[in-house]
Amino acid sequence: MVFSAHIEQFISVLEKSLSLQQFVKISLGNYKGSEDGLKQLLIRTVLIKREPKLAFTFRYKTRDIVKNFSEEEAVKLISEYLQTGFKIATLFTTKRDLIFEELNNGKIVLRETEASTKAVPTAHHDQEKSRLIKPDSKPYLTELKITDAEGKVFKNAQDKFRQINHYIEILSSLIKELPEGTIKKVADMGAGKGYLTFALYDYLHSVLKLDAEIVGVEYRQDLVDLCNAVADKSNFDQLSFVKGTIEDFDAENVNLLIALHACDTATDDAIFKGIKANSELIVVAPCCHKQIRREMEQNKAKNDVSFLTKYGIFLERQAEMVTDGIRALILEYFGYKTKVFEFISDAHTPKNVLVVGVKSKDKGAKSKDKGVRSKDERAKNKEEILQKIKASKAYFGIGYHHLEKLLDL
Length: 409
What we know:
Number of domains: 2
Distance between the termini: 52 Å
Helix content: 25-40%
Number of helices: 12
Structural class: alpha/beta
CATH topology of the largest domain: Rossmann fold
CATH superfamily of the largest domain: Vaccinia Virus protein VP39
Strand content: 25-35%
Radius of gyration: 23 Å
CATH architecture of the largest domain: 3-Layer(aba) Sandwich
Strand order of the largest sheet: 7-6-5-1-2-3-4-13-14-12-11-8-9-10
C-alpha cells in the first residue's frame, strides 16, 4: 500500500506538470526488471504533426529505441515501469524536481529539490530558427526546385524541405556522438536526385566547417549528370556523383555511410560495405524486405506468432522487424552500438525505421574488476549474438539472411 501510494503521488505530480505545461523531462534508472539489456529510460516532449507526444528513449546496453506515446499512454506506462523494474525516477518540472527512489531495503523515498530548469523545452521541430538548412538563396535549392531565386520555399516543396531538414537533424545528432574530425569521407548510397546529399554537404561545410568529401552513388545516369551539374553550379568542389550500384561501389575510407530506402537486399549491401570499410557511422532506412519474407513464406515455421503470420499484412510486418532486427544484431557483432527508431519522412510517406550503427571506440563495456572487458568476454558476447541470430532464424523458418551471407557468418 505504501509503495502504491508513493507511485500515485509521483504520478499525480507528473499529471499536474503536464496539464499546467510545467513538464520538462523524466529520467528512470537502476532497472531491475525482466527486460534483457534495458538500463535507462528518458522521456521528453515532442510534437508530431502538431499533436503533443511524449518520446520514450529506451537505452539498452548496445542500442537505443525511441517510441512516441500520447500523454495518457505515457503516464500509464511510467506507472507500470515504476512497479515492475525501475528503482529510481526523477521528474523535472519548472517548479521543482521530484525524485522517487526504492532503496535496497525496500523502503520508498520521495524527495523534492529546487527546479533544475525554469524553462519548458520547446517541442516544435519545424520552427524556422531551429532549421539547420536555411531557405536562403542557395543554387542547389533553386536548381532542385525547392526555392525560388530569392530563397523562398515553393508551396508544393514545403514537405520536401521539411523532410530534408528532418534528415539533417537526425544525422547532426548522430555525427555529434563521434570524436571531432571523424567525418572526412561520406558515401550516400542510392542518392537519387540528391536532395539529402546536397543538404548534408551544405551542413558539413557551412555549419560544421568540415573538410569532408561526399560521394553520391546512383545507378541512373541522367540523375548522376543532373546532380553533378548542380554541384558545379553550387561550387561544391568536394561533392561528386558516380554511376553504379551499391554492390560495386568501393567504400574504402568512408567514415559515414548512408543508404535511405535501398530496396530489399541493397540495404544489406550497404551495411556490408560500411562494416568492411570500418565506417564510424552507418545509417540505413530499409524498405522492401522481400528476401526474409520469401524465406518465411516458403518454410512456414510453426511458432507462437503463427496465428498472426497466416495473414499477409502481418507476415509482411513481421518480416520487416525480423530482417532489421537481425541487421542490428550483426552490426553489434562487428562492434557497433545500434539504434533503431521510427521517423516520419514527410506528409505523403508512411513511417519508416532507421537502423543506425555507431562504431564503438573502446574495446567493450567496462567491468568492475578489469576496467575493460577481456578478450574472452568479448568473444563470449559475440558468440551469444551468433546464437541469437541462429535461434531467430530457426524460430521463423529462415534459411539465411543476406547480410549474414555477405559477411560469411
